[in-house]
Amino acid sequence: MIDQVVKNLVKLKQEFTRVYDGNSHIQEVIPLEKSDNFPLSEDHLEMLHNFAEKNPIYYNSFDLDIDKISCKVYEGDINEYWLNSISNGASYQPFYPTWILTAYLISSMAKNLQFKEVIDIGSGDGRIAYCAKILGLETYSIEVDESLVNLQKLISSSTKIDFNPECADAVEFDYSDLKLKAPVFFIGGLAQMGGDVLAKNIIEKLNTISNLKNNFGMTFAGTYSKKYFPGTLSEDMSEGGWKAIIEENNLKIIKTIILPTVWTFDQPIDTPYIFTQNK
Predict the structure, then answer these.
(1) What is 2-278's CATH number?
(2) Are 163 and 141 in contact (CB under 8 A)?
(3) pTM reported for the whole predicted model
């Protein structure tokens, strides 16, 4: 079911890109009601809209029928948080959120793959951890930028969904304190923009924890955009830029899904999310 909804969202995004005539800094859509194309529970749909409504990065919303699907469009501006994130020396990538419905689907996939906890590294406004929490997973949202963590705490308080926002450097964080059982770590940053260094350091740390070194997953957000691979061979684009990290750390790819993100709104190819597990 998840795979088909993923395809439906990509199709919806393509049509939205064609018909949208606004000029907001960021924009995304969420269906207004359950349907065959988006068979989410009404409660979960309401919670996704609630996240957007309580999130101050969105300043406007309006209803729009897209390809015969009733949706709400959310328009926003992340410039303030983007500037803060690039000024933080420990940040590996500026704040660019995935879509809320994408966060829900990748969290759903994590649950479907039998992971019990989601640890979102470089979590931005906390949308992945939020979605994982409403799906019944244990969540930890780790972000080094204090202004983004304060934003997460505001959203958590307003929505009454506690997804455990934590202001910390993910490389220095002590994961043994969390008593994890079957976690998956989402890495917030492209490999080409420092995400590879972040992932490598975290994997090395996890391999020192006895109950985790053979029992964790890593999910990487990649890209197939050639602008991130100037002058390189096509194989360097394998697994969205994560091939070297996957092979060097003996990770096994268990699933890849491609979904819309803010940074691919004007691009024909969306963002691959590569789910891996340590062998």
Answers:
(1) 3.40.50.150
(2) yes
(3) 0.93
